[in-house]
Design goal:
Number of strands: 6
Largest sheet: 3 strands, antiparallel
Number of domains: 3
CATH topology of the largest domain: Citrate Synthase, domain 1
Structural class: mainly alpha
Family: Belongs to the citrate synthase family.
Keywords: Transferase, Tricarboxylic acid cycle
Organism: Desulfococcus multivorans DSM 2059
GO molecular function: citrate synthase activity
Catalytic activity: oxaloacetate + acetyl-CoA + H2O = citrate + CoA + H(+)
CATH superfamily of the largest domain: Citrate Synthase, domain 1
Order of helices and strands: EEEHEEEHHHHHHHHHHHHHHHHH
Length: 425
């Protein structure tokens, strides 16, 4: 029996059905509200609005839970490769050996980028941010690789996109440093190939370290999907116009660029660097963060959904400690980050406002240890989030109830006015 919520307006009572998710979360279905009452709802920032039904990712912000297709993020980060998680998100199940081999072959077969695309890189100004370049290049893929129809062809398009985005990112790094482009190798795994394309050179061949490969894989897994966040919502919104996959993903990359979403890991590193270089006392940093009249923000703390410790942070912090110890790297930013966390989690202001470290607080330090330049941090986020975007896009395309996204608004501008000719104004 379907549950209902009663809405009373004047002398009228309306019944709205309640939808229950597989984890017990409940939502009021208001899809017929305007038809029934002539009214709409107003929810600034969509903090209380469910935009879709999804079987991909489950989050519980109060309990600090994150699962992909039912699998805890902790188990996937410990036992799976990024390729397996990408397959899981897109196809709904963890692959068997035959399936992951086939998927890996597809990734290798489509890892090369059309040589004509290399000329595009030279058209961007030297100071261009890698995210702007990546968004443009992904959109341009449609011209070189037409979108194909059918399930098998879609699998090819998906593999092509996942593989080529990684290649494009490495190419952009090499070209803008004036170095020779390194091509992908069929004998290397997804993460090994990316690291080799980034750092190999004729002068100094890159030595692949399994621990560095594992750290990159875990980073990508932790970023692979995160429910209906800003960039994922952008992919679904743009995709609802039935645009091609490349255009929808390009929109997601653009949405990820800002400091409040994907750019937060870069902002954390810049903040920590400023603290170290200027030797700012941590008590002053926290005092400024608590002052509402101060524009300073303590980057890497708090989350729109998590009201407790971000489960990904524990994994990333552990990986951070292990990687820096293995590589014998002394990073003063890590010491500052750890000291800030230790003080903040005991501070009543941060506890009362649910301001705990999020994944961005430690992920940048891991990327620094690997050798990734700071301005490419958000690109790394995009590479990790790509399978989630594709899965969300694919799910929306397959949803028989899915419609063109068209939010409403409450108009607050002037009422009708008489037009005044130019000479009379």
């Amino acid at each position: 029996m379907t549950e209902h919520v009663k809405l009373i307006w004047g002398d009228q009572t309306y019944e709205l059905p309640v939808v229950t998710g597989s984890e017990g979360e409940k939502a009021i279905d208001i899809s017929r509200l305007r038809q029934m009452t002539g009214m709409i709802t107003l929810d600034s920032g969509f903090a209380n609005t469910g935009s879709c039904k999804s079987a991909i990712t489950f989050m519980d912000g109060e309990r600090g839970i994150l699962r992909y297709r039912g699998y805890p993020i902790e188990a996937l980060a410990e036992h799976s490769s990024f390729r397996e998680v990408a397959y899981l998100l897109i196809n709904g199940e963890l692959p068997n050996r035959k399936q992951i081999t086939r998927f890996s072959v597809l990734l290798n077969d489509h890892s090369l980028v059309h040589e004509d695309m290399r000329s595009f890189f030279g058209s961007f100004p030297r100071a261009s941010h890698p995210m702007g370049i990546l968004s443009s290049m992904v959109n341009a893929l449609k011209s070189f690789y037409p979108y194909l129809e059918g399930e098998e062809e879609l699998n090819t398009t998906v593999a092509r996109l996942i593989s080529k985005v990684r290649t494009l990112a490495a190419m952009s790094y090499k070209i803008f440093r004036g170095h020779t482009v390194v091509y992908p190798r069929p004998d290397l795994s997804y993460c090994e190939n990316f690291l080799n394309m980034m750092f190999d050179s004729p002068v100094r061949p890159y030595e692949i370290d399994p621990d560095v490969v594992q750290a990159l894989s875990v980073f990508l897994i932790l970023h692979a999907d995160h429910e209906q966040n800003c960039s994922t919502s952008a992919v679904r919104l743009v995709g609802s116009g039935r645009v091609n996959l490349y255009a929808a993903i390009s929109a997601g990359i653009a949405a990820l660029w800002g400091p409040l979403h994907g750019g937060a890991n870069q902002a954390v590193i810049e903040m920590l660097t400023n603290i170290v270089e200027k030797k700012i006392p941590l008590k002053d940093v926290l005092a400024r963060a608590k002052d509402r009249n101060d524009p300073f923000r303590l980057m890497g703390f708090g989350h729109r959904v998590y009201k407790t410790y971000d489960p990904r942070t524990r994994i990333m912090k552990k990986m951070c400690d292990r990687l820096l110890t293995k590589l014998n790297i002394h990073d003063p930013l890590l010491e500052v980050a750890q000291a800030l966390e230790e003080i903040a989690v005991k501070d009543s202001y941060f506890v009362d406002h649910n301001l705990y470290p999020n994944i961005d607080f430690y992920s940048g330090i891991v990327l620094r240890a690997i050798g990734i330049p700071t301005n490419m941090f958000t690109v790394m986020f995009a590479i990790g989030r790509l399978p989630g975007w594709i899965a969300q896009w694919k799910e929306s395309m397959d949803d028989p109830e899915w419609r063109l996204n068209r939010p409403r608004q409450i108009y607050t501008g002037p009422t009708q006015r008489e037009y005044v000719p130019l000479d009379e104004r």
